[in-house]
Amino acid sequence: MAVKICVASGKGGTGKTSISSGIACCLAGLGYRVVVLDGDIGLRNLDLALGLNERAIFDFYDVILGRATLKQALVPHDNIENLHLLAAPFGTELPDVTKEQMSDLIASIDEICDYCIIDCPAGIGSWIDTIASVSDRALMVATPDNTSLRDAGVTRKFLKARGVSDIRLILNRVRPKLINKMNAVNIDDAIDFTGIQLIGIVPEDQTVIACANKGDPVVFHMNSYAARAYRNIARRVVGMRVPLMKIPRKTV
Ligand SMILES: Nc1ncnc2c1ncn2[C@@H]1O[C@H](COP(=O)(O)OP(=O)(O)OP(=O)(O)O)[C@@H](O)[C@H]1O
Ligand SMILES: [Mg+2]
């Protein structure tokens, strides 16, 4: 049975897709079989982030409707063994996926991987309710600002009320210089504010932006701060004890 982990946020643009892609690559790098499912119906991005957009012919709704088999729809990553993408339908026609359809889809994915990472759209609502119904855990991605953190707190309550009790916070785009000048929320306050236990921090890192635009997974830039952060988080996801990364103050 796979561990199903949704990557969620209250506010949009906090880094869910970058982190889903980064952590999925790192889990596969640790030797686990990983399916990373794009749950952002209509506005999918994960195929671009992984550089698999040309090859994502089918999507998970095609599998649900029987227009493709799961095997046909899964896109193996060329350079990362054990990693498959299952794309979202995209465009303005938004299919209404029921909980039963999602549950059946996840049951078939369950048999072929160890971790299923689900990249969510931002916010709460009926689709996140459906994703929650198939998720064992959640990673809540927030940036260190009041709006993002408050919305993360609300989304935590939404997921918890739907039975997802194992929820961890990822603080993304952390900039020590701003925190020191009291212009960004510090890590302890972010944990207090959201009421979510921290699983990791990801520094602000231009590698993420450059890689996203090239479809080049960040993890190939082994020494970048973001790649190191994703590796640390992936290790914590599988239960390893890894100290919180130190970001040199001069960097960002
Ligand atoms: N650690 C980081 N450092 C610098 N830029 C980052 C970092 N994480 C994400 N970004 C940038 O922030 C933008 C939003 O990231 P991303 O698309 O991953 O967010 P998202 O939460 O998935 O957005 P949406 O809510 O629209 O799905 C992108 O341009 C991405 O490159
Ligand atoms: Mg996204």
Ordered list of secondary-structure elements with their pairings:
Blueprint: E1 3-8, H1 16-29, E2 34-38, H2 46-49, H3 60-65, H4 70-73, E3 75-76, E4 83-86, H5 99-110, E5 115-119, H6 126-134, E6 137-142, H7 146-161, E7 166-174, H8 176-180, H9 187-194, E8 197-203, H10 206-214, H11 225-237
Parallel strand pairs: 1-5, 1-6, 2-4, 2-5, 6-7, 7-8
Antiparallel strand pairs: 3-4
Adenosine-5'-triphosphate (ATP) binds at residues 9, 12-18, 40, 45, 121-122, 172-173, 202, 204-205, 208-209, 212, 226.
Provide key terms for this protein.
single chain; Rossmann fold; 11 helices; binds magnesium ion; binds adenosine-5'-triphosphate; eight-stranded mixed beta sheet; 8 strands; 252 residues; globular; alpha/beta
Give an overview of the whole structure:
The protein is of the alpha/beta class and 252 residues long. It has a single domain, classed as P-loop containing nucleotide triphosphate hydrolases (Rossmann fold). Helix content is 40%, strand content 17%. The chain contains eleven helices and eight strands. An eight-stranded mixed beta sheet has the order 3-4-2-5-1-6-7-8, sandwiched between helices. Helix 1 crosses helix 11 and helix 5 packs parallel to helix 6. The longest helix is centred in the middle third of the chain and has 16 residues, at 146-161. The protein starts with a strand and ends in a 15-residue tail after the last helix. The site of magnesium ion has 5 residues, from helix 1.
